[in-house]
Specification:
Largest sheet: 8 strands, mixed
Number of strands: 19
Keywords: FAD, Flavoprotein, Oxidoreductase
CATH architecture: 3-Layer(bba) Sandwich
Family: Belongs to the paxM FAD-dependent monooxygenase family.
Number of helices: 13
CATH topology: FAD/NAD(P)-binding domain
CATH class: Alpha Beta
Organism: Apiospora kogelbergensis
Pathway: Secondary metabolite biosynthesis
Structural class: alpha/beta
Helix content: 25-40%
Cofactor: FAD
Strand content: 15-25%
CATH superfamily: FAD/NAD(P)-binding domain
Length: 505
């Protein structure tokens, strides 16, 4: 009987989160990372919300994250601004209020720092293999597991393989090819890589020591076919995202890639773009330490797995960057209960995979996970996708709507919602809408939740199903009532101020 082992392709956040969870549960694994370093500095930042932080707290990692902010607390104010940098509205005590309500706030810092924390926490670092680029996967006949091939000629045997290798996932391509050969029609022929769409490109990066910058404040800036997010981080850092709409949507292989020359030209063209009344994006560009220009992909694949192969994170679904930070200010859609923005969603997906493995292991008794059949693996993967898919789809739709709103694809809609409805609703309603998406979030079912004082319980923390249902009804009633009042006031305001709506946004 073969021993249970997970082969993880990729060495990013999803891969290292899963590796840590497997270690916590005594499950064997190996990580195959194509790069030469486990935590390279590529200019990426990361935002961890309540839903992701709750699981990281279960993993014993919250204190390490909080230590990054020992000298300066996380930003607590978000300003919404017009294209000229003038103020529309502000959301104050954002992180503090989230922590009071739900037990955890918001942390924004270098992705590299999170990777290092995850790597340092591993006990079996010898299972993290670098310069191992996956080239193929063989399914062992009779449900005997998988053999993963690397470009250097090495092979690794295991029970299942998890593709955590990003947007351009080799594992997903191999999985699709195997399914087309072994079970034609398993994947929808109409769904292919050409269905991946790109509407925007994004310049993002990290700057440091920008003279005169006000710490503790973040800025979302609307624009005409553009939008910006500028976030204050620890160690006097600033993280920026400048999203620019493409002249027309691009699909699949037609989605452009960008060179350093393209990035330099883009930054020069937008150098004088206002962020606030006092700062332009160029003043931040000029103090950058690392940056890049990249297309923003948008997709959720219909199937995430085939037999002993599953994809998680960006390999299965990809969303835009700005959603997680602007949802509180742009109330176009009911907030997604999963909160699975980027890394937070990957953390939840990993937790659900572990939960499914633990459940089936408990049912199998002394055998635990050794000798899993293909049918049992399929059940594990089906449970994982079923618990995550709908929320991933909701986030992609919501991301699209919010990016459209911020970039003023419909100027009238942008003005009405951001200038009138959001300010009328007020901070409590906005934070309530933001927080509602956390309540149905996943956790590690087999690991105790550390005690954190909070005003609102997650769905899985409520004492009984009956109480849970009643709570949802009451919460929904309160929300509908608040929104109803807000909409009535917004309509009255719109009627009074209609002549002014033809001005600039």
């Amino acid at each position: 009987m073969s021993k249970f082992k997970v082969i993880i392709a990729g060495g990013g956040v999803t891969a290292l989160i899963l590796a840590n969870m497997l270690e916590m549960h005594g499950m064997d694994y190996v990580v195959l990372e194509s790069h030469s370093a486990i935590a390279p500095q590529v200019g990426a930042s990361i935002g961890l919300f309540t839903n992701g932080l709750r699981i990281l707290d279960q993993m014993g990692l919250l204190e390490s994250i909080q230590a990054i902010f020992a000298d300066a607390p996380p930003s607590d104010t978000m300003h919404m601004r017009r294209p000229d940098g003038t103020l529309i509205s502000s959301l104050t005590e954002r992180s503090s209020q989230l922590e009071r309500r739900y037990g955890y706030g918001l942390y924004f810092f270098d992705r590299q720092q999170l990777l290092q924390i995850l790597y340092d926490n591993l006990k079996h670092k010898n299972r993290i293999l670098l310069r191992k680029k996956v080239s193929g996967v063989d399914l062992v006949p009779g449900g005997g597991g998988v053999t993963v091939h690397c470009t250097d000629g090495t092979e690794y045997n295991g029970t299942i393989v998890v593709g955590a290798d990003g947007v351009h996932s080799v594992v997903r391509s191999v999985m699709r090819s195997l399914a087309d050969e072994l079970e034609p029609g398993y994947f929808d022929p109409a769904e292919s890589e050409t269905e991946v769409v790109c509407h925007y490109r994004c310049s993002f990066g990290i700057a440091k020591h920008v003279p005169g910058w006000e710490t503790g404040e973040d800025h979302t800036v609307t624009g005409h076919n553009q939008s910006q997010l500028v976030v204050t981080g620890p160690q006097d850092k600033i993280y920026w995202f400048l999203c620019d709409r493409l002249p027309e949507p691009k699909y699949g292989s037609d989605i452009p890639s960008y060179t350093r020359e393209d990035e330099a030209r883009f930054m020069e063209q937008n150098h004088d773009l206002p962020v606030t009344e006092k700062f332009t994006i160029g003043q931040i560009f000029d103090r950058k330490t690392v940056s890049t220009l990249t297309p923003l992909h948008e997709y959720v694949y219909k199937k995430w797995f085939f037999r002993e192969i599953i994809t998680l994170g960006d390999s299965a679904h990809k969303v835009w960057l700005l959603t997680k930070y602007t949802r509180t200010m742009a109330n176009t859609r009911q907030p997604n209960p999963m909160g699975g923005q980027g890394a937070n969603g990957a953390i939840e997906s990993c937790a659900e995979l572990i939960n499914a493995l633990v459940r089936i292991g408990a049912e199998r008794g002394e055998q635990r996970l050794d000798g899993l059949s293909t049918e049992e693996v399929t059940r594990v993967f089906t449970e994982t996708q079923n618990r995550r898919e709908s929320r991933a789809k909701q986030l992609v739709r919501e991301s699209h709507d919010i990016q459209s709103l911020l970039a003023s694809e419909s100027p009238f809609k942008t003005k009405l919602i951001l200038h009138y409805i959001s300010p009328i609703l007020g901070q409590k309603v906005l934070l309530g809408r933001l927080g509602k998406k956390f309540l149905g979030a996943s956790k590690l079912d087999s690991v105790p939740l550390p005690y954190r004082p909070k005003e609102v319980l997650f769905d899985d923390e409520l004492p009984t199903a009956a109480t849970k249902g009643a709570s949802k009804v009451l919460a929904r009633g309160a929300l509908v009532g608040a929104l109803g009042v807000g909409i009535v006031l917004a309509i009255k305001t719109y009627s009074l101020w209609r002549p002014r709506l033809t001005g600039s946004t």
